[in-house]
Design goal:
The strands form 3 sheets. The protein has a 6-stranded mixed β-sheet, with helices on both faces. The protein has a 4-stranded antiparallel β-sheet with strand order 2-1-4-5. It has 2 domains: 221 residues, P-loop containing nucleotide triphosphate hydrolases (Rossmann fold, 3-Layer(aba) Sandwich), CATH 3.40.50; 71 residues, YebC, transcriptional regulation domain (Alpha-Beta Plaits, 2-Layer Sandwich). By secondary structure, the protein is α/β, with parallel strands linked by helices. The relative contact order is 0.14. Helix content is 37%, strand content 29%. The chain contains 12 helices and 14 strands. The model has no long low-confidence stretch (mean pLDDT 92).
Amino acid sequence: MPTPIIRIQNLTKKFGNLYAVDHLNLDIYDGEILGLLGPNGAGKTTTLLMLTTVIKPTEGTAYIGPYDITHQTDKSRTLIGMAFQEPKLLWVSTPWAILDWHAKICGLPTNERKKRVKWALEELELWNDRHKTVHVFSGGMRKRVEIAKILIQRPKIAIVDEPTAQIDIVGKHKIWNMLRDLRDEGSTILLATNELYEADVLSDRVAIIHKGKLLVCDEPKKLKDTIPGGDVIEVVLKENITQEHLAELKNTKRVVNILTIKPNHLKIYLNQAEEILPQITEFFMKAQIPIATIQMNEPSLDDVFAHYTGLTIEEAQTK
């Protein structure tokens, strides 16, 4: 059985009558990357801010290693490094000055400090801009500086909020690889994200949170295997489907569930899609509803989220 390095016990945060985090219980294992997946407003950032003792819980607690965050805040912080969702930078500072100062307060000796700062700036393609003030940087460049803090510190527990927000696809893959390397060197990584693909490819386990509550936590593949109906047929129609036709389609043999993304965009969860696909196509032909596109897919984390909430993650952002 893996050893938990973070133990979250009934962790709760209320703002007025609103539960931002609602009695959260979760173990995070030593040496894993755990993705905390959910839409904006799900409670991810609030959870991270409680774990890093930036804000106090309303109820419950968590243990960072052996330390209780509510009574041993200073000791619990010694195990943690955090990269915030919104970069914490002084606008008059330069990347070199910010990262050199951060390495200094982390206790790195001079030679090692300069070596790590240079390495991080080069790897994140900031070396040529190291002496520019960060107020001229794009959002993606400022995010790289924030991520560099974690990579330089190499803490026992790295907590990262939206690690690749505003970063281009090449940069995303670079940061994902660097976070994997950090894990392989002995860090445990807790990352919050609303990007389904990021959570899927980067996490050893994924915990899905919605409206402050933990819905489910497991390996991405195991989560996908929980979807009733092992296959997905995604259909985009040239006109909207009626409720009558939708009800008839739901009664088709081996169809387990249908998610209506839009009135003309359906995800059909079913068993043995290869055999049923011709029947689905024939159904729309008989109903005289033209098909724009149709394709078979394996379940994704979006399908997992929809299974547990009844919403796509995009819909959950607005509700």
